[in-house]
Amino acid sequence: MADRTVHIVDTGVANIASLQAAFRRLDAETQLTTDPDALAEAAYAVLPGVGAFGAGMGTLRDADLVGPLRTRLDDLRPVLAICLGMQLLAPSSEETPDVEGLETVEVAVERFPDDVRVPQFGWNEVRADSDGGLLETGYAYFANSYCLPDAPDGWTCARSEYGGDFISAMEHGPVLACQFHPELSGRWGSNLLRRWLERGDDQC
Amino acid sequence: MLTVRVIPCLDVDAGRVVKGVQFQNLRDEGDPAELSRAYQKQGADELVMLDVSATPEGRRTRIETVEAIREHLAIPLTVGGGVRTVEDASELLSAGADKVAVNTAAARDPSFLTELAERFGSQCIVVSIDAKRREEGDGWHAVVQSGTEATERDAIEWAAEATDRGAGEVLLTNWDRDGTRSGYDLELLEATSSVVDVPIIASGGADRPEHLVEALEAGADAVLAASIFHQGDWTVDAVKDHLEDAGLEVRR
Questions:
Q1: Could you tell me which chain B residue has the CA closest to the CA of A122?
Q2: Inter-chain contact B221–A162, Cβ cutoff 8 Å?
């Protein structure tokens, strides 16, 4: 059996009990970390996220995690980025315009349009563009005010509709980014986490 | 677009699910972890657990109850009942709650909501408002301490203020109807949804799926019910069939 220890970046604010329980149900151990070396070497890394873009990047910079995260993402080693975590992969966000993101993708984060209630709060349909292996069509639980409006180059995406289409998830090899919370998205979300772990197994 | 949400509610006393009328004459309805698993399987979109324990011993078991529920629960869990301090909220979130519901402590000191929202984010702060129709005059006033104490606050104005203060959702119970199965208070829902800009969870009085449809059409984003599910009259799935037939989008 491959090493299924999942290192979760400890941002100090994200409530991760549900995430830990979700991985326990999939027989994966979790460990909270802010250690750059542990993150670089981890079989699986999770970038959770609650809070603002600027504060999120500040936490990563202060803990010297920007470098190891960028390396993992460039090398396509298993990373799961959730909610704000997904947005941190962008070069910038309307939420905190002067702060630089991880720049994994080229599309900047925008706020939802004014004609819908913000934040988006609840279950929305996720439609997978094509079969990338991880993402499937189903319903997921969201709590967000910002999103990626367009598909980045080279990623297989899933879209949802809220004041127009936005990118609700994207995958590239074993890197998976979800605007929704897979750990709170019922069996559909649990199956997505399982496929992500399995794709990581294949890599080892 | 977003689906409507169906939320079974577990009123928990000293580690057991109970249900009475307005928290009186509580009946034992089962084990919270087992019931929450069953509801998840039936298609519940979220769960709310309200701790109604009156004794300190009962309160202490509530963390264990939250942990036991979380272990198998892959949908959002809101926990309320006696949340008085930031530490109370922090403890519940660490144990596995995704949101905390605050009632009496927020009504006494609204800045508590701001404090919670700044610490944890509005997305995990629910203001729980128990509204009771005024005996004289129009409208509803907010009651606290499990309905035993009236406040000066107008329930609808309080809902608007609480969301300005940082609550991300409103759990709105018509206290006169709680546990009576006489249908939700639609006027209350219409009046509140016209002034509040966050999701409203309707609570108090559900007896059959038509009641849930009415509440959602009156402006609720989600419907909470306890008795109709605990007593096995309806499964969440069967309720969702009705909502779908009424043209509402549900999660399947």
A1: B2
A2: no
For the sheet with A6-9, list strands across it.
Answer: A30-33, A6-9, A44-47, A79-82, A175-178, A165-172, A156-161, A120-128, A138-144
The confidence score (pLDDT) of residue B181 equals 84
Residue-wise pLDDT for A132-160, tens only, equals 899 999 999 999 999 999 999 999 999 99
Find, in chain A, the residue whose alpha carbon is nearest to that of B43: A186
Nearest to B236 by CA among B55, B44, B12: B44
Q: Which of A121, A123, A162 sits opposite B168 (nearest CB)?
A: A121
Residue A57: closest CA among A109, A6, A20: A109
Contacts of A190 in chain B (CB under 8 A): 74
Structure tokens at A184: 């709170």
ipTM of the complex: 0.94
Helix (H, G, I), strand (E, B) or coil at A166: strand
Spatial CA neighbour of A154 closest among A132, A123, A138: A132
B92 within some domain: yes
* B251 located within any domain: no
- Residues A96-117 have pLDDT tens digits of 999 999 999 999 999 999 999 9
Separation between Cα atoms, residue A53 and residue A100, nearest integer Å: 9
Q: Catalytic: which of B13, B31, B51, B130?
A: B130
The residues facing B19 across adjacent strands are B27
**Chain A to chain B, count of Cβ pairs less than 8 Å apart?**
85
Mean pLDDT across chain B: 93
Tell me if residue B241 is catalytic: no
Q: Domains of chain A: which residue ranges? A: 6-203
CATH at residue B56 = 3.20.20.70
The answer to whether position B250 is within a domain reads: no
Eight-class DSSP state of A19 = H
Class of domain A6-203: alpha beta
**CB atoms B75 and A117 under 8 Å:** no
- Give domain status of residue B210, yes or no: yes
CA distances from A110 to A64, A81, A97, A113 (A): 26, 17, 10, 9
Contact B1, A161 (CB under 8 A): yes
Domain total for chain B? 1
Query: Which residues in chain B show pLDDT less than 50?
Result: none
Q: Which residues span the domain enclosing B64? A: 5-245
Q: Catalytic site residue B11?
A: yes
Q: Give me the residue from B3, B96, B199 closest to A18, CB to CB.
A: B96
